[in-house]
C-alpha cells in the first residue's frame, strides 16, 4: 500500500507522453532503486492527447423543447477524441441501444448526435465479459455513427452502477471515416437523457469538447531488474501499465498493478531470498491507448540477447486474488504443480487462457504470458472515472496480490518453466 | 439488495429481545409472506441487555498526570457487560498483550483497569482465524482480570484496521468470579492509550458504563417455508441470525445472511421452479449472545415430526462468494458432484468442515450442516461497529451470495443428500 500511496501522491496524472507521466516514471525509478533493483528506461513512441481545460460540467447539455427541459449531462471526452468546433456544436440526438438499432435509424442519423445507450449486462458473472461486449459502442461507435453521417456521439458510461461519474476510455477511429467527437455520459444521466428523448424525440444537445490530439511523442517504459544468481540471462517479467486516464489517479487501473510488481520485489528482498533467474519489473506507458509500447518492447533490438521465460501482468485492479490465467497450455501443465503453494496464499486456481495487453506481443516470441486475475465484481465501479482513487483500494486485497505475484515470480525464478 | 434495504430501514436496532428485534421479526414475516412462503414464529428464551443512554464519547477517559495528557477514548460497553457504579469508577490502568503478560503483572492488577491490547494478527490469510485468536481477550478477558482483582477491562477492538470506531461483541463471565465492567476501545485509541501508558505508567482511566442486564425474555425465531411438491416432510433450512449489535444496523452481520436466505427463495419463486422437498428460512434471535436459540430450535418438540436433511447458514457477511464448508464428510462426497453447477455461479470450492453457530446443534441430530463462505478480507473492517452499514455492502457481492444459496438449496431440494 505504501508504494501505491507514494505513486499516486507524486504522480496522480499519468496520460501517455504527459509531464505527469514523466514524473510517474521518475517516481518508479526512485522506488525501484530504493528496493535495490537496477533500473532504467526504454523509450516508446506514444500517441498524445490532452483533455481541454474548458471541459466542464456544462460540456454537454440536453436542450429539450422548453427551458425547463434543460439538463446538464455529466460527460467527459473519450480519450483520443477529436474536439468539437471551438464554439461547440448543437444537433438533434438519436438514441441507439445497438448497432442494429443504429442502422435502422437510417437518415435520422445524418447531422445528428448519436447517443449509444447500451448498458453493461449485469446478469453476467464475469464483469469483464459484460465490459467487452458493451465497450464496442465506446471504441467503434463514433466511426459507425460517422459512417451514417452523425456529427458526434455520446456513449453511456461503462459501469454496472448508476452513478454521477462519466467513465472514459479510448475511442478508435476508422481511418476511412470522419473523426467525430465522442464523449462518455454518466449512467444516471444516460437514463435521464433516454427518458427525456422518449418524451420529446428530436430534442437537441449542445456539445463542446476542447480536447486535442497532439503530435505523437515518446514516453519511457520503466524497467527494474534483480539479476539472478545462477542464470541471470533468463528473465521473468512482472508487468503493469503506468499510464492512466486523467479523471482520477488511476488507483486500480493500473496503479495497483505497477505497485504490486514493485511490492513483490520488495517482499522477496525483505525475505532475504536469492532468485536464481532474473526478475524484472516492466511498466508500460500507453496501455489505455492500445498498448503500442508492448509491441515496441517485444520488437526492440534489446530483446535479442535476452531469454525471457515468462511475463505476468496485473491490470485488473487491486482486488482479492483469485487466480492466474496462463497464455500457454504447455506452461499450464508445468505450473499446475505449484497450485498448492499458491493456494496457501489465497489463489483459488491456475487456468489456461490469459495474458495481458502489454505482455501479449511477447507471447509470439514463445514467452509464457500470464494474467494475474483478481475478483472483478467491483472493478467497473471505479474504472476510468473520477472514482478510481486510493480510498477505493483495500490494503489487504492489494497486498495479497503483491504476495501471490511474489510467490509466482519466485517459483518461476527458481524452477524455470 | 432490496430485501436488505427494507430490513435495515424498518429495523435498524435488533438486540435480542428488544422492541427493535420484534419489529425486525414482523418485517421478515411480511417479507416472507410477500415472497409466498408460509411464515410463523417459534419462541425462544433469550438474554436481554441494554446499552446505557448515557454512554457517550466521554465514557472512558485517560486522565494522565497533567490536564494536557487527558485523552477521551472512543469506547463502547461490550454486550452483556455489567455497568460501572453510577458515578463511574477511576483506577490505574495496566496493559497486557496476552494472558501470560497479565499473569506476570501480579499484584499490579488488583484494583486496576486491565487494558488488553492484543492486535488481530494481520499476517493470517484467514481473518476469522485472526479473530478467533484475538477474541479470547474480549470474551474471557474480564473474568481473567477479575480473578486477579481487576475492577474493569478495556479491550482493543477486533479489527485489522486502525480506525475510530469501537467494535463491540459479547463478554462471557465466569460464574465463579466477579462480573466486572468491560468495554471495547477503538484501535486508534488503543494505540494512543498504549503510548501514553508507556510514557506515564500507572496513569488512571475514568470509566462510566450505564448499560444493564435485564431479566431474560422471549424472542421469536422467524420461519418461512415453501412446501415441497413431492416430499414436503423433508426440509432444507437456510439460516441467518436476525439479531445484531446495536452500534449499527448490522448490514453484514447478519442482515446480509437473513436477506440472502429470503432472496434465495424469491429467486427460485421468480424462476417458476417447484422444489420437490420443502425449503425453509429460519432466522435466529440471539447468535450474538451465544446462539442459545439454535439449541432451543433443535431441541424443540416441533422438530420431532420433521425430517430436516440439511441446514446452511450465512453469517460471514455479504461478500464475494467463495465456497461452502460442509459439516459432514459423507455429505461432502455427495455434494462434491454439484461443484460444477456451483462453479457456474461463482463458487470456487466445496470443502469438508463448516456449519454455523445457529445450525450447529442440528448436526447432532444427523442434519447435514453447511456454512456459506464468502471472502473475509473486509469483514472485520465493519464487524460489530458503527461501520456495519448498508453502504458497506456491495450489491453484486450480496446478490451473488443469494444466487449461490438458491442454487445449493434447489439442488438439495431436488436431489436430497
Tag the structure with descriptive keywords:
homodimer, 417 residues, alpha/beta, Aminopeptidase, Glucose Oxidase, domain 1, 2 domains, eight-stranded mixed beta sheet, 13 helices, 16 strands, elongated
Please describe what this structure looks like.
- Two copies of one chain form a homodimer.
- By secondary structure, chain A is of the alpha/beta class.
- Chain A folds into two domains: 2-46 and 216-415, 3-Layer(aba) Sandwich (Aminopeptidase); 60-213, Glucose Oxidase, domain 1 (3-Layer(bba) Sandwich), CATH 3.50.30.30.
- Chain A has 13 helices and 16 strands.
- The first copy, chain A, has helices at residues 2-10, 19-35, 99-105, 127-139, 141-147, 187-199, 251-270, 292-299, 329-335, 339-343, 360-363, 379-382, 395-415; strands at 38-50, 60-62, 71-73, 75-77, 89-96, 113-116, 152-156, 182-185, 204-207, 212-226, 231-241, 277-284, 307-313, 321-326, 349-352, 368-374.
- Chain A has an eight-stranded mixed sheet, sandwiched between helices.
- In chain A, α1 packs antiparallel against α2 (19-35).
- The model of chain A has no long low-confidence stretch (mean pLDDT 96).
- The interface between A and B is medium-sized, with 17 and 17 residues.
Structure in a nutshell:
Chain A has 13 helices and 16 strands.
Low-confidence stretches of chain A: none
How many domain modules of chain A?
2
Order of helices and strands of chain A: HHEEEEEHEHHEEHEEEHEHEEHHEHEHH
Strands ordered across the widest β-sheet of chain A: 1-10-12-11-13-16-14-15
> Briefly, what CATH class of the largest domain in chain A?
Alpha Beta
Tally of individual helices of chain A? 13
The whole-number mean of residue pLDDT values of chain A reads 96
Give the oligomeric state of the chains in this entry, treating copies of one chain as homo and distinct chains as hetero: homodimer
What is the molecular shape of chain A? Answer: elongated
Gap between N and C termini of chain A, in Å?
A: 30 Å
Question: Can you give the helix content of chain A as a percent range?
Answer: 25-40%
Total number of strands of chain A: 16
List the chains of the largest interface with their residue counts. A-B, 17 and 17 residues
- The Cα radius of gyration of chain A reads 22 Å
- CATH architecture tag of the largest domain in chain A: 3-Layer(aba) Sandwich
Amino acid at each position: 500500500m505504501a508504494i501505491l500511496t507514494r505513486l499516486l501522491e507524486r504522480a496522480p496524472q499519468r496520460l501517455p507522453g504527459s509531464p505527469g507521466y514523466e514524473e510517474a516514471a521518475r517516481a518508479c525509478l526512485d522506488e525501484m532503486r530504493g528496493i535495490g533493483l537496477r533500473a532504467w528506461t526504454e523509450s516508446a513512441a506514444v500517441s498524445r492527447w490532452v483533455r481541454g481545460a474548458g471541459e466542464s460540467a456544462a460540456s454537454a447539455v440536453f436542450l429539450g423543447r422548453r427551458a425547463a427541459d434543460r439538463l446538464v449531462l455529466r460527460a467527459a471526452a473519450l480519450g483520443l477524441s477529436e474536439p468539437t468546433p471551438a464554439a461547440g456544436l448543437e444537433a438533434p440526438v438519436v438514441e441507439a441501444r445497438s448497432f442494429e438499432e443504429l442502422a435502422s435509424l437510417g437518415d435520422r442519423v445524418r447531422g445528428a448526435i448519436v447517443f449509444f445507450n447500451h448498458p453493461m449486462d449485469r446478469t453476467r458473472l464475469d464483469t469483464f465479459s459484460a465490459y467487452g461486449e458493451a465497450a464496442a459502442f465506446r471504441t467503434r461507435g463514433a466511426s459507425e455513427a460517422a459512417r451514417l453521417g452523425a456529427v458526434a456521439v455520446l456513449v453511456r458510461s461503462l459501469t454496472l452502477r448508476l452513478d454521477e461519474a462519466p467513465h472514459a476510455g479510448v475511442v478508435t477511429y476508422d481511418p476511412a471515416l470522419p473523426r467525430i467527437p465522442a464523449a462518455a455520459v454518466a449512467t444516471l444521466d444516460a437514463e435521464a437523457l433516454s427518458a427525456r428523448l422518449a418524451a420529446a424525440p428530436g430534442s437537441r444537445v449542445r456539445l463542446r469538447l476542447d480536447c486535442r490530439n497532439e503530435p505523437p511523442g515518446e514516453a519511457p517504459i520503466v524497467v527494474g531488474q534483480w539479476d539472478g544468481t545462477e542464470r541471470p540471462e533468463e528473465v521473468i517479467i512482472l508487468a503493469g501499465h503506468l499510464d492512466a486516464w486523467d479523471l482520477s489517479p488511476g488507483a486500480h487501473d493500473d496503479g495497483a498493478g505497477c505497485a504490486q510488481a514493485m511490492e513483490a520485489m520488495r517482499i522477496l528482498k525483505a525475505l532475504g531470498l536469492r532468485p536464481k533467474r532474473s526478475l524484472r519489473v516492466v511498466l508500460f506507458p500507453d496501455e489505455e491507448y492500445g498498448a503500442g509500447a508492448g509491441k515496441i518492447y517485444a520488437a526492440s533490438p534489446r530483446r535479442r540477447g535476452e531469454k525471457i521465460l515468462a511475463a505476468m501482468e496485473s491490470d485488473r485492479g487491486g482486488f482479492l486474488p483469485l487466480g492466474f490465467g496462463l497464455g500457454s497450455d504447455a506452461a499450464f501443465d508445468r505450473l499446475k504443480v505449484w497450485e498448492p503453494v499458491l493456494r496457501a496464499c489465497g489463489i483459488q486456481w491456475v487456468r489456461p487462457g490469459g495474458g495481458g495487453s502489454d505482455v501479449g506481443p511477447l507471447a509470439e516470441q514463445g514467452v509464457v504470458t500470464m494474467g494475474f486475475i483478481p475478483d472483478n465484481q467491483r472493478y467497473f465501479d471505479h474504472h476510468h472515472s473520477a472514482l478510481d482513487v486510493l480510498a477505493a483500494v483495500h490494503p489487504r486485497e492489494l497486498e495479497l496480490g503483491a504476495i501471490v505475484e511474489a510467490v509466482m515470480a519466485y517459483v518461476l525464478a527458481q524452477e524455470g518453466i
